[in-house]
């Protein structure tokens, strides 16, 4: 004979004491089920609102923490890689910080010095100063040797600088290029 299998016992049904719930939510015992449901729905809505507020606060704090961590590693993180590292911080902060720390230590370690052969004195040739070509400075040629010459030099320099700023703004070129153009224009005059 085969043993008969006994069916598993059904879980005991939990009974809800409505009177106890009504007293918990400060309703009179004579309140209807609709009133109880309305109060419970309002409680749930209030809890949901608080939950969303807390969730928003948590996200803001997480963003602030991530931005602070990224600012701490600004010397290692490139501008283009910032979104990648932000995602890594949000996904696994500990691993991202460990990776950035090891990156920083690798960047901070100086290269081992390579032994360069010392130049011998007889092989190094340094040209004599008096043999170098003279440097022509056309701006200063325009100034005479009068006592007010230093004032004119300052005035000429200021005029060239001002013209260079105008060229830089109007043509959107680097200042050094604008200065060279202004100097050429001034020397033509």
Structure description:
- By secondary structure, this protein is mostly helical.
- The chain folds into two domains: 18-108, no CATH class; 139-188, no CATH class.
- Helix content is 60%, strand content 0%.
- It has helices spanning 18-24, 33-72, 82-91, 93-108, 138-141, 149-171, 175-188.
- Helix 2 packs across helix 3 and helix 3 packs across helix 4.
- It is elongated, with a radius of gyration of 41 Å.
Distance between the termini: 125 Å
Number of helices, where a helix is a run of at least 4 consecutive DSSP H or I residues: 7
Number of domains: 2
The backbone outline, from C-alpha atoms, is elongated
Mean pLDDT rating = 78
Give the amount of beta strand, in percent: under 5%
Largest sheet: none
- Helical content (DSSP H or I, runs of 4+): 55-70%
Structural class: mainly alpha
Low-confidence stretches: none
Radius of gyration: 41 Å
Q: What is the helix/strand order?
A: HHHHHHH
Find the count of extended strands (DSSP E, 2+ residues): 0
């Amino acid at each position: 004979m085969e043993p008969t299998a006994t069916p598993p016992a059904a879980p005991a049904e939990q009974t809800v004491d409505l009177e106890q719930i009504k007293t918990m939510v400060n309703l009179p015992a004579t309140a209807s089920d609709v009133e109880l449901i309305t109060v419970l729905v309002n409680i749930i809505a209030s809890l949901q609102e608080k939950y969303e507020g807390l969730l928003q606060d948590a996200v803001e704090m997480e963003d602030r923490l991530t931005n602070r961590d990224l600012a701490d590693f600004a010397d290692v993180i490139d501008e283009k890689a910032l979104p990648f590292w932000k995602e890594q911080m949000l996904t696994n902060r500990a691993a991202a910080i460990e990776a950035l720390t090891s990156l920083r230590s690798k960047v901070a370690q100086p290269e081992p010095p390579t032994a360069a052969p010392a130049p011998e004195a007889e092989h190094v040739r340094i040209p004599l100063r008096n043999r170098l070509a003279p440097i022509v400075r056309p701006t200063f040629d325009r100034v005479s040797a009068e006592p007010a010459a230093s004032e004119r030099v300052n005035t000429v320099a200021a005029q060239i600088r001002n013209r260079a700023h105008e060229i830089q703004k109007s043509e959107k070129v680097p200042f050094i290029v604008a200065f060279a153009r202004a100097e050429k224009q001034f020397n033509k005059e």
